[in-house]
Structure formats: C-alpha cells, structure tokens
Amino acid sequence: MKRFLSSPYIQRARQRATATVVGCDRRPPNLCISCVTDHCNDRAKIHVSISYRSFHLTANTLAVARERTYRDRYHNTRGEQDNGSDLSTHYIQNLERRAREHKQNFLINNTTSTQNAQDISTLLAPWNRTTVELIMLMSKAWSKKTNHHQQNNNGNNNRNLNKHQSDNDRDEMQKLVKLVSLANDLLHKVLQSKKTEIDTLYDKHNLSSKSVDSKTMNNNNNTRWGQKQKDYLNTSILCQTVALGWSRCDPHIAIQAGNNANSTLELLEDMCVKRGRLYDVAKVSFDIQDITPKIQLYNHVLTCWSRSIDPNAEMHARKLMDRMLNKSPEDGAFVRPDKYSYNNMLHLYANKGDVNAAESLLYEMEESNEVDVDVFSYSITMNAFQKRFTSSKPSERDMKDPVRAEELLIRLVTKYEQSRFNNELLRPSNVTFGTVIAMYAQSDRLLKEDQRLDYTNKTRNWRARNISTNVDNKNVGWGASNAERILDWIIGLSERERRSKLSERSSDIPEAYAPINSERIIRPTSFHFTTVMDAWAKCGKGRDGAERCERLLERLISLYETHGYNEIRPNPFVFGTVINAWSNADNKYETAEKAEFILGRAEDLFLNNSISSNPKYNLSNIVYNLVIDAWSRRSGSDTEERAEQVLERLLNNYHQTKNRFLRPDVITYTNVMKAFVNHPNGGEKAVKILEEMNDQYRDGNIRAKPDIKALSVAMDACSKNGMTIEAERILNDIDDERKNNIMFNTIISGYKSEGLGDEAEALLRRMISLENSGFRRCSPDRISYALCIEAVSSLCTN
Asked: Do 585 and 545 form a contact (C-beta atoms < 8 A)?
C-alpha cells in the first residue's frame, strides 16, 4: 500500500488537489442538490458549489492517477488481458468499482424550482466531467472488441477445446455487458440532469406549440465552439460510445441491447427538439450541438437491431429508417441514412432470412443518388442468398440462388471495371468471390439431399462403381464445373487489374496510387482452389473428378511460382484434398497408388521445411490417414502391407522432424486395423495395434487413445479370424454405457462362424439383461436374433 501511495502519479495528483481545495472547509461527498437549492442562501450556494466542484476535481485527479498506476502495474506486468480489449482483469475491476461509487454520488430531485435549473447544471458539471472520463475509459473494453476463435488441429480434442474457448468467450462477453450497463446508467444520469434543466425552462415558457426552425438547428450544428469547447460536454459522443458498446455485445446475452440504445437515441432527440425551441428564448447552460445526435449514433442503434434476436427488431429498425428518410426535426430525426445505415438493414434482412427484402433494398441503393453502394452491400445480400440456399430444411431452399448470387457479383465487378479499377469501395473481396464459389460447390451435395439424383442413400462402394459411368445423371458435377468457372473468372480479372495498374504506373500517376504488389488487388487464394477441388472430389465424378483436382493443383503451383502471391501459396490441406479425391475415386489399386504419389509430392514440399509458426503450412498426419484409408478399402495381395508401410513412414518422419502434427493418432491406427480385418492374421495384428495405441497413450500421446470405432474394428478383425474370445474380452473392458448392439452382433457372428452356439446364446441373453438395466443401445435387434438362431441351429446340426 505504501508503494502504491508513493507512486509518482499519486504524488503529483495530491499536489494538484491540495492547490485546488485551498480555502474550502466543507467536504460534501453525498451532496443533495435539492437540499442546496431549496434551503441554502445564495452565499451558501456559491460556497457549496465551489466545495462540491473542488471535491470532484480532487477525486477526478486522484482517480486518473490510480488508473495510470493500475495500468502500469497490472496491464504491463501481469499480462492478464480480456479477449480483444487489451485491458487487464484488475483494470476492469477497478473501473467497475469506480463507476458504481460514482453512480451513488449522484442525487437530484426532479421537483427543483425553475430559478435553480441552471444552478443544477453548474453544480453537476464536475460530476459530469468524471462521468465522461469513466465512460471513455470503459469504452476501451469494447472499442476493439472482436471474437477470436482459435483454430486448433488436435484431432479428438477439438470439441473440448472449442467448448472451453466458447465458455471463455461467454464469460468475457458477460463482463463486457456488465461494463456497458454501468456506462449506460452513468450516461442516463447525465442525460437526466440536462433533461431536467430543459424541461424546467420548457414548461416555464410554454413552448410546446412552437415549431422548430431547422435552419437554426443546422446553423448551430455547424458552429465552432472555440474556447468554450473545454467547458462543455459533448453528450452526443457519449451516447455514440455507449451505443457502440451495446452493438458489440452478444445479442443472446444482452437481449435488451437494441431497446437500451434506442431509448438513448429517443431521449437525445427529444431533448434536442426542445432545446431548439428554447433557442433565443431562454438561456441554457449547454449548447445545442452538445445534444444533437449524429449519424454514427443512428448507425450504432441500427447495428443493435440488425444483430438482435428480438422478434420486433425489424419493425423498430424499419421505423427508425423511415424517420431518417423523412429527416423532420419535429419527428425527432436529424440526419439522412448513409451506406452504413442501409448495410445494417441488409444485415438485418440477411439474419432474418428475408432475401427478397434484402435484394429490393439493394436495388434501392443502386438507384439512389444520395447513397453510394459498396462491396459490403453486395456481400451481405449474397450472404442472404447463401443462408437460404444452405438451409437445413430442403423446402426452404431455392436451387437458383447460386445463379442469382453470381448475377449480383457480375453487377459489382462491372461497376468496379467501369471505374477503371480505381474505386476501392467497389473492389470485390476474397469473401465475395468465395461466397459464390462455395454456393456452387455445395450444389451437388444439396442436389443429392433433395433426392433429385437416385444415389442419395447408396453406399460409398456403390457410388464408386456406378456414378462415374452413369450418363443419365447429367446434373452430376454441375456445381463443381460452375465453381471452377468462377475461379477462372477471378484469375482473368486479377490479370486485367494488374495490367491496368501497370499502365497507370507508367503514366504520370504517382507510384503510390498504382500499387502492383499491394493487398488492394483482386487475387485468387488457395482457399478458392481448395473449395473447387473439394467440390470435384465429392461431386461423384469418380476418376474424372480426381483428375480435375490434380490439374487444379498443378495450376495453383504454377501461379504461385509465377507471381509469388502469398494468398495462393500451396499448403498441405490442398494436397490432402487431392489425395481424398483419388482415395474416393473408385476401388481400383491404381487410384490408391496415385494417392500415395501425391503424398510423396507433399512430403517434398513441406516435410523438410522448418516448423512454421502457422500450423496451416505444417505437414500433418491427416494426409497420411487419407492414404492409409485408401489402401484399407482396396483389394489386393499387398494392400495390408502398403497401409502398414505408410504408418511406418509416418512414424519415421515424426521421429526425424519432431513435428507434433505428424504424430499418429487414433484415426491412423484405426485405418491400419481396417486394412487387416480380412487378413488371415488380422486378429493378432489388431490386438497388437491396440496394445501399441495404449502404449502411445501412456507415453503422452492422448490422441492415440482407442475410441469406440477403433475397438469395434479390432473386435471385427478378431471375430473374422477365429479369435472371437479375444473380441469378447475387448468388449468386456468397455463400459456398459458405451456398448452398442453392433459390437454384440459382431461377436455373435464370430461365434456362429466358429460353431459356438452356447456362447452366442449367452451373449444374446447378456444383451437382454443390459436392455432391462436401462442400456437401450445394447437392445438386440433382428440381426442379433437371426445370428444367434443360425449359431444354435448349426450346433444342433453338428
């Protein structure tokens, strides 16, 4: 404590405070304004006013010193930061404590007489200045608030990590909502004090019937404050700051964010209208510019409504937009909507799924001469199309939405080209192009789900045999081909823009206005290529789709070698997409060899590189798992050995590079066991692999812990290779709540093959017993009874 009080900030604050309060013998920390104005004489009023002002100036100075000390001590040394706010927990707690104490110091009686209205504002000026300081300090918590969702490629731990991250985000958001609520309470006390003064003078002069002179208000809005600016509070900016805080809050936590921001706006509008009527009639202690709402405040309120889950949010936002379009001070609107206002409305329609309203509003923006449409306007409308197109309910989908989204993109690109590639507000972003590509890429999958093609419920082996040769399915690959067409469009547009910038550079235009290698140029990205390649891999075209994926990979590498753009830098995930395409192309031996060949190319590029700080460019076990899976589904004399060789290859690379992303996981070992299911020694191999997985887990590789799928594959391998007793031992080690009837059926099938009818019947009775105990997943089905009957009948025959 002594160290805190001896800090240089506190020492200087004490010196300034001592010089300020010289001559004051009163200390009114809980001053009641109504008591002062009603019972004290003029001399006492002046004395109390000076004392009250001095007290708050002293408190304010010491408070600033404390804030700096907390900032230096906790923020810079401890490093405990809120998500996106760059403020330590101790700093936030200190702000909350100060805000609560400062709120309690406010006490005002609304029955104050008319003669004392201006005295109230004078007496409250120090309290208001401290309020401004507190609100602006608290605003740091939400001024840069963003949701950071860290991506982690840790296999089965992704779900737990994401849940933990989500819980942390929720806790941080609850703290933010609490801080914004405190700022909102302080702000409304400031507004209430000003409203009391205006209402008192307003009722005294009976100005309810007087019209508002818009010219007078506009002139006041444009006046410069000069030297008096320091003495006035810009209350409008405080309202904008708090409204911004409400717009950054999670609407599921701050449910009343829209209502709170809207009530602040309406209160400020009402005060401004009355203040305009008091112009040249009565003297008010603050200027009209202090309470005139700006366009930023309206946009923050619209942002709150656009993100709100309130069922009446659209009605409130539309009502506010209508008032802004009318721009009548009598109705309480002082500004016209700008492009941000329209974009907020588009965002609201997109969240509500009202695609037609969003599209009509975009047309209205294009036809309007007062507002400029930008790339975000088109992107938000495309997002509305995408949400409807990917709806979980097939009845709500419209399969023409990808074409409509492309039409919007064409209109945007046309406007950008007409500006000779100079209007940055119309430059399509990677997200804009990526939305259209993603919609086309998802078309083939959604067509299957809508049962427009006759292989929705077919197995993967059936699709591999029949889809690529079925000429009747003309829609197969329609989405992938259109997605590749959009990708070609991006590449051509990027080249045209580059040449345009190059020609401008050769002219008299300075180099800064015609950058060639800056971020302000349309470029394809590796994500665009991956999306198109994944579409070809999953559309059902078989080998043709895999060949197209490989050609796109070659094109991506060529573009990167030619231009060197970081956006198109190949990464292991791109190679994994091609490997997956060859793995699912068909069941031929050659396609698995092709997948392993692509794996070798990925190793040449990424294996010997130093471990990158960005996990996206580190080779991981995912590509190896895909190749092992390909071999496990092929038939041949050496497919099991080829799958095991890939595993050994992965282990050698892991020990050589010490890259933790290359360490085998449960998926790796499970795929190897799948390859040995039908092998003569598959049971022994499966048991050996399970032991190795347990050893890896005890050695610290938590991702190698056997899961239900791995145990099921091991039991299947044992049951098919005369080791059914070993399979039942594996089953006995599993907890009852994790068992299911598929495991039991696998073992009963093994006992049937071995002619052990009594063991099969005992296992069936065990299933019935577990069912009666409440484990419904172990309930026997038709397959269970059929297998048991066959096992017992074969025993009777013998």
From this structure: yes
Across all residues in the chain, what is the average pLDDT? 79
pLDDT in tens, 548-583: 999 999 999 999 999 888 889 999 999 999 999 999
**Under 8 Å between Cβ of 485 and 532:** no
- Evaluate if pTM is beyond 0.90: no
Asked whether the beta carbons of 634 and 584 are under 8 A apart, the reply is: no
Q: Which 3 state secondary structure label does DSSP give 297?
A: helix
Beta bridge partner(s), residue 142: none
Give the bridge partners for 88, in sequence order: 81
User: Which neighbouring-strand residues pair with 81?
Assistant: 88
C-alpha distances in Å from residue 296, one per residue of 323, 382, 695: 15, 25, 61
**DSSP E strand boundaries for 539-640:** none
CB atoms within 10 A of CB 654: 17
Query: What long-range pairs does 428-434 form, CB within 8 A, spacing at least 24?
Result: 428/375, 428/378, 428/522, 429/375, 429/379, 430/523, 430/525, 430/527, 430/528, 430/567, 431/379, 432/375, 432/378, 432/379, 432/382, 433/409, 433/486, 433/490, 433/522, 433/528, 434/525, 434/527, 434/528, 434/531
- The string of pLDDT tens digits covering residues 172-222 is 888 899 999 999 999 999 898 888 888 887 777 666 655 555 554 554 443
Number of other CB atoms surrounding residue 152 within 10 Å: 11
